[in-house]
Amino acid sequence: MTDPLDVAGLQRRLADFAAARNWQQYHTPKNLAAALSVEASELVEIFQWLTPEESARVMADPDTAHRVTDEVADVLAYLLQLCEVLGIDPLTALDAKIDRNERRFPI
Amino acid sequence: MTDPLDVAGLQRRLADFAAARNWQQYHTPKNLAAALSVEASELVEIFQWLTPEESARVMADPDTAHRVTDEVADVLAYLLQLCEVLGIDPLTALDAKIDRNERRFPI
Amino acid sequence: MTDPLDVAGLQRRLADFAAARNWQQYHTPKNLAAALSVEASELVEIFQWLTPEESARVMADPDTAHRVTDEVADVLAYLLQLCEVLGIDPLTALDAKIDRNERRFPI
Amino acid sequence: MTDPLDVAGLQRRLADFAAARNWQQYHTPKNLAAALSVEASELVEIFQWLTPEESARVMADPDTAHRVTDEVADVLAYLLQLCEVLGIDPLTALDAKIDRNERRFPI
Lengths: 107, 107, 107, 107
Known about the structure:
Four copies of one chain form a homotetramer. By secondary structure, chain A is an all-alpha fold. Helices cover 72% and strands 0% of the residues of chain A. The first copy, chain A, has a domain at 28-88: Orthogonal Bundle (Helix Hairpins), CATH 1.10.287.1080. Chain A contains five helices and no strands. In chain A, helix 2 packs antiparallel against helix 4 (62-86). The first copy, chain A, is globular. Chains A, B, C, D: Keywords: Hydrolase.
């Protein structure tokens, strides 16, 4: 039986992965933010010439679905590593942001 | 007493927030991917003129720390909403990607 | 009477502008590429929630037209400065790329 | 003897290239802005793990120099096509922006 996945566990796996390859030296906040934006653009690239309707159907094609899932993973990997080196808890940050947005955009 | 934060709970809050403002109509995968990349670039903007060393100290300044945390939240918000509309589990996607990377980059 | 604008003249103005403010120290190719991508994302931000049809009409609104024109200028400014520090002639690079694309995508 | 390259001539080549392949249907301002940001990120990708000093030497390696030049061309191609569909003169836009910046950042 395996534990359910959680953010802290994935951050540990990512940190171990980087440490085992001596890659932490590259993981300045500046570089991780750049890498995050590059991966986000690779997601955009999948959608760039699609109509809104076509973009809503990307998961129907197994190859595209795999590609999208892979890029989502890359974005999350760099976001979690950036949070790790900066000492930010991403879920708490998002929870607080939704609170602020609820006050900023009242229904 | 509040439950600990988790990804599924935050996705529910984000979906409720968008539904209450009738914003789901804008949330095509194409638009959410673009919004994600825009927020990732707002993170890059904070670091763009900093040296690697300065970038490692951004959290020491409270205003910059708040700004970085806020942008991290925005990136995560759009990533989770993109995953929701596409039916992707982001933690499972990342776990599988780390597995693949361990085979691709052996120690 | 003023000369017609050209790329070399604008690169000279940009270089003088940066030199007069002692900003060249920040203009590493890495930083200029990041700044270019940040400005490109500010262009994307203008369009991110628009339908394709709405995006085709952005110049009809004077405020949006001004904003788009301003972001186009920022993208071009960083592209020309990047080319300057790297010794790339942007028009020759594009001309050669169109040649390659004509062979790669025959009619 | 060939004419010297200019922006208007390159825009004409790009427009002819797209028209011959029936690609103008994809060239909404929204899509071109996204494509521009994707190409800008491909430039960033080349520099993302480099130190500032390494980034200053990218043109010393012929393969990297070719890759950088190619991405610069792609960014310029989408910028010129975006300007074409929006009716923006990019050189005039940049000239006016430098004027504004000179007032905004006095020496």
